[in-house]
Amino acid sequence: MDEKILTQLSIELGKKLKQQKRWVTFAESCTGGWLAKVISDIAGSSAYFDRGFVTYSNKAKHQMLGVSETVLQQYGAVSEQVVKEMAIGALKAAQADLAVSVSGIAGPDGGSEKKPVGTVWFGFAHRTENGIEVVTRHCCFNGDRNEVRLQAAIYSLKTLLLVIIKN
């Protein structure tokens, strides 16, 4: 059922992007490319999506998206600061109009008291007349690894649609 929601959201997002002649990119960690997959599943998606970044390791986040090594060490990969830099890096690298970044702890291991399994941070970057604006969000999802990742993907697309409708 939830995967059907992803398809519906991808179709809706594609229509909006096409209407607005805007391009989207994704910088994914815990979702492992799921967002790029569901967007590219839609026929004609090459009109608004041409690349994404799967940056699972800190090294990849730094090398591909320009995330500061200092920020990664100080705050950890699952943080507001990192998803903000991931979104900006992806937006610039892809020369897109919109970018979504996702970094979280899908489990079953890796959680802590401060960052339990299910913790996911999101960055939503878009170009404005004054430069780049980034909105960050934080969620703590329940479920197993697959359920956390699926919820993160759904949340990403729903929130991106709200940003696009707003702007």
UniProtKB/TrEMBL annotation:
Pfam families membership: CinA
Protein EC: 3.5.1.42
Keyword Protein transport belongs to the record: no
Top enzyme category: hydrolase
Keyword Iron: no
Residues annotated as domain CinA C-terminal: 8-161
InterPro entries given in the database record: CinA-like_C (IPR036653), CinA_C (IPR008136)
Record keywords: Hydrolase
GO MF entries: nicotinamide-nucleotide amidase activity
Protein name: Nicotinamide-nucleotide amidohydrolase PncC
Lineage: Bacteria, Pseudomonadati, Pseudomonadota, Gammaproteobacteria, Enterobacterales
